[in-house]
Design a protein that fits this description.
The chain is largely without helices or strands. Helices cover 11% and strands 9% of the residues.
Length: 264
């Protein structure tokens, strides 16, 4: 690790590596952050938290070249970090959907409503001085906040230590079935705070579904109460991606008898 990689000058700063997490170092990350309001993005990985460990999911994301910052299993509380918080993640690919939940989940959607992968839009991975991607071992159609959220407090404490405000500028994420028809506003994205992947501009993810945001961060600040940045940032809708069949991204492309770690 080069000197200065884990530092972010002039802002509230904690540990670049979450002290209580396990580690699977990704081979590469999304690069240097461009600056702006800090944010955290919650996404689902399309895998059963009763069967798949955070470690196994993190190893799969590393193999795919799609690392997020944290992988969290809310049943066991296991949390694994792949890249330092001050670097960009790679799980919000434009024109792809990491949580298309189908037996043969297509990570590179090419359906008629899918975004073009090279359409020149901004790289949302690098926007903000931080853009922390939290991959939850779970399903978008079954909001993970309806069950156990073991290990949530250390994650929130870590995000707090970096000055990410506990607010949801875009409100609660839409239910999984309706995620591709809801607006993904550039103006609200610029405010910073917490977001579902389904609220990120140009990202085609449908998760994390209708999660209880108050259970994650406390009473949310409604979108109407959040001051918007100046400028002509007109609200935009993400191009919807084709939703494929249900199943897990962590095990996509592997034989049914592949030796995956079991959650316990």
């Amino acid at each position: 690790m080069t000197e200065g990689l884990d530092r972010c000058e002039g802002v509230p700063m904690g540990d670049a590596w979450m002290p209580t997490a396990g580690y699977v170092r990704a081979s590469a990350d999304g690069g240097q952050m461009k600056g702006g309001a800090p944010r955290a993005v919650w996404l689902t990985l399309g895998a059963d938290p009763q069967l798949i460990s955070a470690l196994s999911a993190a190893q799969r994301l590393k193999q795919l070249g799609r690392p997020c910052h944290l992988v969290w299993n809310p049943i066991t509380g296991e949390t694994v970090q792949l890249i330092p918080i001050v670097r960009a993640g790679c799980s919000l690919n434009v024109g792809t959907d990491i949580d298309q939940e189908g037996p043969t989940a297509d990570l590179y959607a090419t359906g008629p409503l899918a975004a073009e992968p090279n359409d020149g839009v901004a790289d949302v991975h690098t926007e903000g001085r931080l853009c922390v991607q939290v991959g939850v071992v779970g399903f978008g159609w079954e909001p993970f906040t309806s069950g156990q959220v073991t290990g949530l407090d250390p994650i929130m404490d870590w995000l707090d230590s970096w000055g990410i405000p506990r607010r949801w500028p875009a409100g609660s994420p839409a239910p999984f079935a309706h995620a591709h028809t809801t607006p993904r506003s550039r103006r609200l994205w610029a405010c910073g705070g917490h977001y579902g992947a389904s609220q990120v501009p140009y990202c085609t993810a449908a998760g994390p579904g209708a999660i209880d945001v108050e259970r994650l961060t406390g009473v949310p600040k409604r979108a109407a109460d959040v001051p918007l940045p100046r400028g002509n940032g007109a609200s935009q809708r993400a191009r919807a991606a084709a939703v494929s069949r249900m199943g897990g991204v962590v095990v996509e492309g592997e034989p049914a008898d592949a030796p995956l770690a079991r959650a316990g």
